[in-house]
Amino acid sequence: MMSDTILTYDHGNWVEITLNRPDRLNSFTDEMHNALRAELKQARDNGARAILLTGAGRGFCAGQDLGDRDPSKMDGAPDLGHTIAIFYNPLIRLIRSLEFPVICAVNGVAAGAGANIALACDIVLAAHSAKFIQSFAKVGLIPDAGGSWSLTHLLGEARAKGLALTAMPLKAEQAADWGLIWKAFPDDALMSEARALAEQLANGPTLGLGLTKSLIQQAATSTFDEHIDLEAKTQKTCGESSDYAEGVTAFLQKRSPKFTGSQK
Hints:
Layout: E1 6-10, E2 15-19, H1 30-45, E3 51-55, E4 59-61, H2 80-97, E5 102-106, E6 109-111, H3 113-120, E7 123-127, E8 131-133, H4 147-155, H5 157-166, E9 170-171, H6 172-178, E10 183-185, H7 190-202, H8 206-218, H9 224-239, H10 242-252
Parallel strand pairs: 2-3, 3-5, 4-6, 5-7, 6-8, 7-10
Antiparallel strand pairs: 1-2, 8-9
Helix pairs in contact: 1-2, 4-5, 8-9
């Protein structure tokens, strides 16, 4: 799908995807949703081993473009449940289901669903000037795009409620201190750090990295006994992979490994 709302750059074994509506703080339209999902799927189908997601201009994403859901311009109340079910939930599920790392570089404000799309990614880096805002409370809504789940699991009930009920902006460095994101960097260093990480992960043992991602995501809903049994099953898969054989051989030969991300 061709759309100027999403920019994609192929770095070989990883893909950089940029939300591109800077005049609207990269807020989402239906077209933008469809274009982003199409680019994520194409990267997956073309064998990408990592994805870097970021935003154009001075912000990462302000969530939904409310101009498209303005009750005063509609015959009746908008069906926001339909919007979430058709657009946001499929996007969040796709990001979390990709069998390789997804990095998010938050280059400015991440508000509403924009914040929660970032939190759905595997590793979140942010510029010092970035802020995470659960802005839903300002317009009478609940945190969607997985927000009420992500905040609670990452921060605990007290901080999740504080951020969601007050819509207080959370600065990037405090977000890192609290464990909401991985790291914060000076603004001029963010993209170089993010691209270096994407390159590192894409050249790593991506079969094992993808399975690690899956295990960590499942930990929230499995018992300890269930989970260690799943670890054993998953480790068997890793142990049979060409990446494991290459990693051990390279270690014993004292050279850098050349991983392919393949199972056999």
